[in-house]
Design brief:
Helices cover 31% and strands 26% of the residues. Strand 8 and strand 9 form a beta hairpin. Helix 2 packs parallel to helix 3 and helix 2 runs antiparallel to helix 4. It has ten helices and ten strands. The structure holds cytidine-5'-monophosphate. Cytidine-5'-monophosphate (C5P) binds next to strand 2 and helix 6.
Length: 299
Protein backbone atom coordinates (compact mmCIF):
# COMPACT_ATOMS: atom_id res chain seq x y z
CA UNK A 1 0.00 0.00 0.00
CA UNK A 2 1.31 3.45 -0.86
CA UNK A 3 1.62 5.88 2.01
CA UNK A 4 -1.27 8.32 2.11
CA UNK A 5 -3.60 5.86 0.38
CA UNK A 6 -6.90 5.28 2.19
CA UNK A 7 -6.81 1.69 3.43
CA UNK A 8 -10.52 1.29 4.13
CA UNK A 9 -13.37 3.48 3.00
CA UNK A 10 -15.94 4.69 5.57
CA UNK A 11 -18.44 2.07 4.36
CA UNK A 12 -15.86 -0.67 4.74
CA UNK A 13 -14.92 0.54 8.22
CA UNK A 14 -18.55 0.16 9.33
CA UNK A 15 -18.26 -3.60 9.51
CA UNK A 16 -14.88 -4.41 10.98
CA UNK A 17 -14.49 -7.82 12.56
CA UNK A 18 -11.76 -7.98 15.17
CA UNK A 19 -10.08 -11.16 16.34
CA UNK A 20 -7.41 -11.58 18.97
CA UNK A 21 -4.35 -13.67 18.20
CA UNK A 22 -3.08 -14.56 21.67
CA UNK A 23 0.44 -15.82 22.33
CA UNK A 24 0.56 -19.62 22.54
CA UNK A 25 2.63 -20.94 25.44
CA UNK A 26 3.72 -24.56 25.80
CA UNK A 27 3.68 -25.21 29.57
CA UNK A 28 5.47 -28.45 28.78
CA UNK A 29 6.49 -29.93 25.44
CA UNK A 30 7.57 -33.55 25.05
CA UNK A 31 8.82 -34.98 21.77
CA UNK A 32 7.47 -38.54 21.52
CA UNK A 33 8.84 -39.56 18.15
CA UNK A 34 9.64 -38.56 14.61
CA UNK A 35 7.64 -39.35 11.49
CA UNK A 36 9.18 -40.51 8.22
CA UNK A 37 8.48 -37.06 6.71
CA UNK A 38 10.60 -35.39 9.39
CA UNK A 39 7.73 -33.95 11.46
CA UNK A 40 7.87 -34.73 15.17
CA UNK A 41 5.15 -36.31 17.29
CA UNK A 42 4.47 -34.10 20.26
CA UNK A 43 2.71 -34.11 23.59
CA UNK A 44 2.21 -30.61 24.96
CA UNK A 45 0.04 -28.64 27.34
CA UNK A 46 -0.71 -25.42 25.49
CA UNK A 47 -2.25 -22.30 27.00
CA UNK A 48 -2.98 -18.88 25.53
CA UNK A 49 -1.88 -15.63 27.09
CA UNK A 50 -3.89 -12.44 27.48
CA UNK A 51 -1.20 -10.80 25.33
CA UNK A 52 -1.07 -11.11 21.59
CA UNK A 53 -1.39 -9.76 18.08
CA UNK A 54 -4.60 -8.20 16.82
CA UNK A 55 -6.30 -8.91 13.53
CA UNK A 56 -9.13 -6.95 11.91
CA UNK A 57 -10.99 -7.80 8.73
CA UNK A 58 -13.43 -5.64 6.79
CA UNK A 59 -15.24 -6.06 3.49
CA UNK A 60 -13.25 -4.93 0.45
CA UNK A 61 -13.21 -5.47 -3.29
CA UNK A 62 -9.88 -7.24 -3.20
CA UNK A 63 -7.57 -8.91 -0.67
CA UNK A 64 -5.13 -6.59 1.08
CA UNK A 65 -3.02 -6.62 4.17
CA UNK A 66 -1.62 -3.78 6.26
CA UNK A 67 0.82 -4.65 9.01
CA UNK A 68 1.59 -2.40 11.98
CA UNK A 69 2.75 -2.70 15.59
CA UNK A 70 6.14 -2.93 17.32
CA UNK A 71 7.14 -6.09 15.41
CA UNK A 72 5.36 -5.20 12.15
CA UNK A 73 8.61 -4.59 10.30
CA UNK A 74 9.70 -8.21 10.94
CA UNK A 75 6.73 -9.70 9.08
CA UNK A 76 6.65 -10.17 5.31
CA UNK A 77 3.61 -8.26 4.01
CA UNK A 78 3.63 -10.06 0.64
CA UNK A 79 1.87 -13.17 -0.61
CA UNK A 80 3.84 -15.56 1.63
CA UNK A 81 2.43 -13.88 4.74
CA UNK A 82 0.55 -16.57 6.64
CA UNK A 83 -2.44 -14.25 7.05
CA UNK A 84 -2.88 -13.92 3.28
CA UNK A 85 -2.23 -17.63 2.77
CA UNK A 86 -4.94 -18.36 5.37
CA UNK A 87 -7.40 -16.06 3.58
CA UNK A 88 -6.70 -17.70 0.21
CA UNK A 89 -6.95 -21.22 1.68
CA UNK A 90 -10.35 -20.40 3.26
CA UNK A 91 -11.54 -18.83 0.00
CA UNK A 92 -10.49 -21.90 -2.00
CA UNK A 93 -12.16 -24.29 0.46
CA UNK A 94 -15.45 -22.40 0.55
CA UNK A 95 -15.67 -21.23 -3.06
CA UNK A 96 -15.62 -17.59 -1.97
CA UNK A 97 -13.68 -14.86 -3.76
CA UNK A 98 -10.65 -14.00 -1.59
CA UNK A 99 -11.64 -10.49 -0.50
CA UNK A 100 -11.03 -8.44 2.59
CA UNK A 101 -9.04 -5.58 3.99
CA UNK A 102 -7.01 -7.16 6.76
CA UNK A 103 -5.07 -5.31 9.38
CA UNK A 104 -2.49 -7.12 11.46
CA UNK A 105 -1.02 -5.44 14.52
CA UNK A 106 2.13 -7.36 15.51
CA UNK A 107 2.63 -7.13 19.26
CA UNK A 108 4.52 -10.43 19.54
CA UNK A 109 8.11 -11.04 18.46
CA UNK A 110 8.31 -13.24 15.34
CA UNK A 111 9.95 -16.68 15.12
CA UNK A 112 9.83 -16.85 18.89
CA UNK A 113 8.03 -20.04 19.96
CA UNK A 114 4.76 -18.40 21.01
CA UNK A 115 2.64 -18.96 17.94
CA UNK A 116 2.91 -15.58 16.28
CA UNK A 117 2.16 -16.31 12.64
CA UNK A 118 0.07 -19.37 13.56
CA UNK A 119 -2.05 -17.31 15.97
CA UNK A 120 -2.50 -14.64 13.29
CA UNK A 121 -3.55 -17.26 10.74
CA UNK A 122 -6.08 -18.77 13.18
CA UNK A 123 -7.44 -15.31 14.01
CA UNK A 124 -7.88 -14.36 10.35
CA UNK A 125 -9.65 -17.66 9.63
CA UNK A 126 -12.10 -16.93 12.47
CA UNK A 127 -12.61 -13.33 11.32
CA UNK A 128 -13.16 -14.23 7.65
CA UNK A 129 -15.60 -17.04 8.48
CA UNK A 130 -17.73 -14.30 10.09
CA UNK A 131 -17.08 -11.64 7.46
CA UNK A 132 -17.91 -13.97 4.57
CA UNK A 133 -20.69 -15.65 6.57
CA UNK A 134 -19.57 -19.11 5.48
CA UNK A 135 -20.42 -22.32 7.26
CA UNK A 136 -17.98 -25.17 7.35
CA UNK A 137 -18.43 -28.81 8.30
CA UNK A 138 -16.96 -29.93 11.62
CA UNK A 139 -13.25 -30.40 11.25
CA UNK A 140 -13.07 -28.58 7.92
CA UNK A 141 -11.69 -25.39 9.44
CA UNK A 142 -9.20 -27.46 11.45
CA UNK A 143 -8.11 -29.14 8.20
CA UNK A 144 -7.54 -25.78 6.53
CA UNK A 145 -5.64 -24.66 9.64
CA UNK A 146 -3.37 -27.71 9.62
CA UNK A 147 -2.56 -27.10 5.95
CA UNK A 148 -1.17 -23.70 7.02
CA UNK A 149 1.06 -25.04 9.78
CA UNK A 150 1.18 -27.59 12.57
CA UNK A 151 0.46 -24.96 15.26
CA UNK A 152 -2.55 -23.32 13.57
CA UNK A 153 -5.25 -25.84 14.70
CA UNK A 154 -4.38 -25.40 18.39
CA UNK A 155 -4.48 -21.62 17.94
CA UNK A 156 -8.07 -21.92 16.67
CA UNK A 157 -9.03 -23.19 20.13
CA UNK A 158 -7.49 -20.44 22.20
CA UNK A 159 -8.10 -22.29 25.50
CA UNK A 160 -5.90 -24.71 27.47
CA UNK A 161 -5.49 -27.90 25.44
CA UNK A 162 -3.35 -31.01 25.29
CA UNK A 163 -1.84 -31.27 21.84
CA UNK A 164 -0.73 -34.52 20.21
CA UNK A 165 0.23 -35.81 16.78
CA UNK A 166 2.24 -33.14 14.98
CA UNK A 167 -0.14 -30.52 16.40
CA UNK A 168 -3.48 -31.57 14.94
CA UNK A 169 -4.68 -33.85 17.74
CA UNK A 170 -6.30 -31.51 20.25
CA UNK A 171 -7.99 -32.43 23.53
CA UNK A 172 -9.44 -30.19 26.22
CA UNK A 173 -7.08 -29.86 29.20
CA UNK A 174 -8.34 -30.00 32.79
CA UNK A 175 -9.19 -26.62 34.27
CA UNK A 176 -6.02 -24.91 35.45
CA UNK A 177 -5.70 -23.02 38.74
CA UNK A 178 -5.48 -19.22 38.71
CA UNK A 179 -1.97 -18.25 37.61
CA UNK A 180 -0.21 -15.85 35.24
CA UNK A 181 2.86 -15.67 33.05
CA UNK A 182 5.81 -13.42 32.55
CA UNK A 183 7.19 -13.81 29.02
CA UNK A 184 10.76 -12.92 28.07
CA UNK A 185 12.47 -13.00 24.70
CA UNK A 186 16.05 -11.90 23.94
CA UNK A 187 14.93 -10.47 20.56
CA UNK A 188 16.79 -13.13 18.62
CA UNK A 189 14.64 -15.02 16.09
CA UNK A 190 14.91 -18.79 16.20
CA UNK A 191 13.56 -20.71 13.17
CA UNK A 192 11.52 -23.76 14.28
CA UNK A 193 12.85 -26.27 11.68
CA UNK A 194 16.46 -25.74 12.81
CA UNK A 195 15.56 -26.37 16.44
CA UNK A 196 13.70 -29.61 15.64
CA UNK A 197 16.62 -30.73 13.46
CA UNK A 198 19.05 -30.09 16.32
CA UNK A 199 17.12 -32.15 18.89
CA UNK A 200 18.97 -35.32 19.90
CA UNK A 201 18.59 -38.05 22.51
CA UNK A 202 15.79 -40.42 23.45
CA UNK A 203 12.13 -39.58 23.00
CA UNK A 204 9.92 -38.81 25.99
CA UNK A 205 6.73 -40.33 27.33
CA UNK A 206 3.44 -38.43 27.41
CA UNK A 207 3.08 -36.05 30.34
CA UNK A 208 -0.71 -35.67 30.35
CA UNK A 209 -2.55 -35.42 33.65
CA UNK A 210 -6.21 -35.47 34.59
CA UNK A 211 -6.84 -33.63 37.84
CA UNK A 212 -6.78 -29.87 38.27
CA UNK A 213 -3.76 -28.84 40.38
CA UNK A 214 -5.07 -27.07 43.50
CA UNK A 215 -3.08 -23.85 42.98
CA UNK A 216 -0.29 -22.27 40.94
CA UNK A 217 2.40 -23.80 43.20
CA UNK A 218 0.95 -27.29 42.66
CA UNK A 219 0.85 -26.65 38.90
CA UNK A 220 4.50 -25.54 39.00
CA UNK A 221 5.42 -28.71 40.91
CA UNK A 222 3.62 -30.87 38.37
CA UNK A 223 5.25 -29.04 35.44
CA UNK A 224 8.68 -29.36 37.06
CA UNK A 225 8.40 -33.13 36.51
CA UNK A 226 7.88 -32.45 32.82
CA UNK A 227 10.01 -30.36 30.45
CA UNK A 228 10.54 -28.80 27.06
CA UNK A 229 12.49 -31.32 24.98
CA UNK A 230 13.60 -28.63 22.51
CA UNK A 231 15.47 -26.55 25.10
CA UNK A 232 18.98 -27.96 24.58
CA UNK A 233 18.69 -27.66 20.78
CA UNK A 234 17.49 -24.05 21.10
CA UNK A 235 20.32 -23.14 23.49
CA UNK A 236 22.86 -24.67 21.08
CA UNK A 237 21.60 -22.25 18.40
CA UNK A 238 20.93 -19.23 20.63
CA UNK A 239 22.88 -19.42 23.92
CA UNK A 240 20.96 -16.38 25.21
CA UNK A 241 18.02 -18.72 25.84
CA UNK A 242 19.98 -20.11 28.82
CA UNK A 243 20.53 -16.55 30.09
CA UNK A 244 16.79 -15.85 29.84
CA UNK A 245 15.96 -19.07 31.72
CA UNK A 246 18.50 -18.25 34.45
CA UNK A 247 17.16 -14.72 34.81
CA UNK A 248 13.55 -15.91 35.02
CA UNK A 249 14.29 -18.65 37.53
CA UNK A 250 16.00 -16.22 39.91
CA UNK A 251 13.30 -13.52 39.64
CA UNK A 252 11.13 -13.22 42.78
CA UNK A 253 7.60 -14.51 42.23
CA UNK A 254 8.55 -16.94 39.45
CA UNK A 255 7.48 -20.47 40.45
CA UNK A 256 8.85 -22.21 37.35
CA UNK A 257 10.91 -21.03 34.36
CA UNK A 258 10.73 -22.79 30.98
CA UNK A 259 11.12 -22.20 27.25
CA UNK A 260 7.96 -22.15 25.09
CA UNK A 261 7.76 -24.10 21.82
CA UNK A 262 11.02 -24.00 19.88
CA UNK A 263 12.10 -20.75 21.61
CA UNK A 264 13.56 -18.33 22.09
CA UNK A 265 10.69 -16.98 24.25
CA UNK A 266 10.70 -18.33 27.79
CA UNK A 267 8.06 -17.94 30.46
CA UNK A 268 7.89 -17.73 34.21
CA UNK A 269 4.81 -19.18 35.87
CA UNK A 270 3.54 -16.86 38.62
CA UNK A 271 0.72 -17.06 41.18
CA UNK A 272 -1.25 -14.16 39.72
CA UNK A 273 -1.04 -11.18 37.36
CA UNK A 274 0.37 -8.72 39.95
CA UNK A 275 3.20 -11.20 40.67
CA UNK A 276 3.85 -11.57 36.93
CA UNK A 277 3.82 -7.77 36.49
CA UNK A 278 6.28 -7.35 39.37
CA UNK A 279 8.55 -10.03 37.86
CA UNK A 280 8.31 -8.31 34.45
CA UNK A 281 9.38 -5.01 36.07
CA UNK A 282 12.43 -6.60 37.72
CA UNK A 283 13.48 -8.31 34.48
CA UNK A 284 12.97 -5.19 32.37
CA UNK A 285 15.27 -3.23 34.69
CA UNK A 286 17.96 -5.88 34.44
CA UNK A 287 17.58 -6.60 30.71
CA UNK A 288 16.32 -3.48 28.95
CA UNK A 289 16.97 -5.01 25.51
CA UNK A 290 14.62 -7.96 25.96
CA UNK A 291 10.95 -8.14 25.02
CA UNK A 292 9.09 -8.73 28.28
CA UNK A 293 5.36 -9.02 28.97
CA UNK A 294 3.16 -10.05 31.86
CA UNK A 295 -0.08 -11.79 30.98
CA UNK A 296 -3.02 -13.77 32.29
CA UNK A 297 -3.77 -17.21 30.97
CA UNK A 298 -7.02 -17.35 28.98
CA UNK A 299 -9.20 -19.90 30.84
O1 LIG B 1 4.08 -26.76 10.37
P1 LIG B 1 5.03 -25.62 10.52
O2 LIG B 1 5.36 -24.96 9.21
O3 LIG B 1 4.64 -24.64 11.57
O4 LIG B 1 6.37 -26.27 11.05
C1 LIG B 1 7.61 -25.66 10.87
C2 LIG B 1 8.70 -26.73 10.94
O5 LIG B 1 8.82 -27.20 12.29
C3 LIG B 1 8.46 -27.98 10.13
O6 LIG B 1 8.92 -27.82 8.82
C4 LIG B 1 9.27 -29.02 10.88
O7 LIG B 1 10.63 -28.92 10.54
C5 LIG B 1 9.14 -28.57 12.33
N1 LIG B 1 8.08 -29.28 13.04
C6 LIG B 1 8.27 -30.59 13.41
N2 LIG B 1 7.29 -31.25 14.09
C7 LIG B 1 6.15 -30.62 14.42
C8 LIG B 1 5.93 -29.27 14.07
C9 LIG B 1 6.93 -28.63 13.37
O8 LIG B 1 9.31 -31.20 13.13
N3 LIG B 1 5.22 -31.30 15.09
Amino acid sequence: MRSGEVFMTQAELADVIAARAPAKVNLYLHVLGRRADGYHLLDSLVVFAGEGDRVEAAAAEDLRLAVSGPFGADVPAGEDNLVLRAARALAAATGQPARGAIRLEKQLPVASGIGGGSADAAAVLRALVKLWNVSLADGELAGIALGLGADVPMCLHGRPVFVGGIGEDIAEAPALPACALVLANPRIPLPTPQVFRGRTGPFSASGRFEATPRDAAALAELLARRGNDLTAAAIALVPEVATVLDALSTTPGVLLARMSGSGATCFGLCADLPAAQAAAGVLADQHPGWWIAAADIVA
